[in-house]
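Why do we bother with holo predictions? Because pocket geometry can differ from the apo form. Keep that in mind while you read this record for PBG.
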Amino acid sequence: MSLHPLGQFPNYRPRRLRQSPALRRLVQETRLSVDQLVLPLFVRSGKKVRQAIDAMPGVFQLSPDELAKEAAKAYALGVPAVLLFGIPETKDEKASGAYARNGIVQQAVRLLKNENPSLLVITDVCLCEYMSHGHCGLVDKKHGRVLNDPSLALLARTAVSHAEAGADIIAPSDMMDGRVRAIRAALDKGGFMDTPIMSYAAKYASAFYGPFREAAESAPKFGDRRGYQMDAANAEEALREVAMDIQEGADIVMVKPALAYLDILSRVKREFGFPTAAYAVSGEYSMIKAASAKGWIDERAVTMESLLAMRRAGADLVITYAAMDVAKWLGK
Ligand code: PBG
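The structure, written out:
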């Protein structure tokens, strides 16, 4: 079409529909609702521990008792789901803590589901927090390389141990190739045919994860994650990653980070039409916190605008550290 479509609407005057808040709401295309929010939480061992994370004001490493309180608060505000990350007491080169029957995440899941069966408990499945070297899979020490295929069995074992503890959704974030298939097969074999997988499908090697690595104590001790996470320059590759995960059995696909990757979110939603999650990652949260602490931006307005943009781009659900604030702002 050579003519802009608006050229055919000589009487169009957009301002007519912008005259009052009620009118604007009436024609609003996208909404953010509390039902769509997921709150990430960090759990560590101990009692009455609320260890602040410097780079993420308002976010804490919580012992299970405190975690239960935090989850209850979120649920009372209308937040339907939490995403759990564990910080184990000890780390090794097999990530034993990731799949231990009584590992920190497994304990936390049992406790949360026991206290409130209606709260959706999503577990992040990865090995980096449990590995002494901080990588997301097994490492060939001689060459310092992450071993893809040998890591799959450990990831699958981790996923099953989470499901056994009562996890509602399994969320693999490791980015090993073939892990969704391995996890799906192991869950099915364990009798968890109905446990959905939310895969971190398009996960970029991003500097926006900086604050998280302090929070989860999971920074790699050598090298980086570029060998398995995606290059920020690539979009087509993201579609292949998503296609692969869907083929392997993912029920929900995630794009991460969110704000700098809205184009990816939009293409993933259009191309596949699958339930799509956006992860507003630690760095996105910290930047807003820092600038608003300086009085340079309006925390609430910028947070709401960012999350709405993720919805507009195609996200069905949004994972955000600000979920409780947002729930309050939305007025339940
Ligand atoms: C684990 C994992 C990471 C995040 C979620 N799961 C860190 C990483 O890949 O380095 C980042 C989340 C955030 O920054 O908020 N692999």
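Residues 23 and 311 are 21 Å apart (CA to CA).
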